[in-house]
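Holo prediction — iron/sulfur cluster.
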Amino acid sequence: MNRRAPEAGDNKGDSLGLYLHIPFCARKCLYCDFLSFPASEETRRLYIKRLSEEIRACGRRAGMRERIVDTVFIGGGTPSLLLPEETEALLEAARASFRVDAGAEITMEANPGSFGRAAAGRLRRAGVTRLSLGLQSACDGELARLGRIHTCRAFQESFDAAREAGFDNVNVDLMSGLPGQTAESFGKTLAFTARLGPEHISAYSLMIEEGTPFYEAYGAMKADLERYGEWEDIPPGRRAAYQGTLPLPGEAADRGMYHMTKEFLMEQGYGRYEISNYAKTGGECRHNIRYWTGSDYLGLGLGAASLMDGARFTVTRSLKEYLGRTPEDFRLGKQYRETHVLSVREKMEEFMFLGLRMIRGVEAAGFSRRFGTRLEAVYQKACAGLMEDGLLASSGEGDEKRYYLTERGLDVSNCALAEFLFD
Ligand code: SF4
């Protein structure tokens, strides 16, 4: 299923990943701050037209035809809201404009409330090789509190439809730290998911993001939990303010779910290859590995981010502006709202803090290849300090040498990775 995944430092510029953003959702989930919203059929149709034009125009830019596209990721939003012929049109535009490898990993995100048998068959025939299904929780009460549009049963039907259509590479997204969630209910979600046997599982903790209905409902409670640790430790007077709101799991319960995920999924035969991502052998997501290894990707569509030739740039987040663009605007790059050319120091930081998210860590020789200097010469102090604290370890010698976060380092990854920032 998988070819060799890229290594940090491999950035030869000869391969490329494409990300296509579909910003539409049937309804906004209560915790979501992604660039997504409900839209009319007419808007959706015009958007697909513009996105196809952007794909074709970008494919005509100098140097693009020299690159082999070996991963395509259609994300959102809810790409499964598109009609199958719209997805087919996007893939056709990508194949006509870029050199998409015959063995490319082509992922599409799908929401169980909007994905059935007929669509699954057509998408498979259109060349989608990998499906990413958002379950989040197998408990209907938790799904309803998240504002998800599906039940656990609807998820099961979508998963079965994917298998019947021949999808043998499926990811399931899960979330922990949900309001009212307990170790027991989370255990049920993990067991339900493992029984289905997807090739890949992503498991993230709920983040309470500003500007979402969840922030209004839980922002203050979250701050109190961070201050006091557990629900029971919040002074009764403050707790009274949250009357009628189901409590969020406290720090210890949250950590418990994190450890449970790791232990349970590994027992079930999943390898942990990134802090929050697990896969059966060969089921690792090649597209996401691009992000963690600093390999080039081109983002197309509203708000999509790119990393190309050492620069990060982002498409406008204004739908009106995007829909008003012409093919010539796209060719000239007028859809981008900002471009940032990374300095060498920023590239080094990214090499370390993205690469170390992967369990295999970073290759010292890859650092030398990319920056012309030894990793130890730049990060001697950070590496020594983290190794002394038991958060970082190394293996191999010479060209084989790697640095990776230990179990303890992964548990406190935010603090450990911050050591690789220069300022
Ligand atoms: S389906 Fe995904 S992108 Fe859409 S609102 Fe829910 S979480 Fe956000």
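READOUT: Residues 84 and 111 are 14 Å apart (CA to CA).
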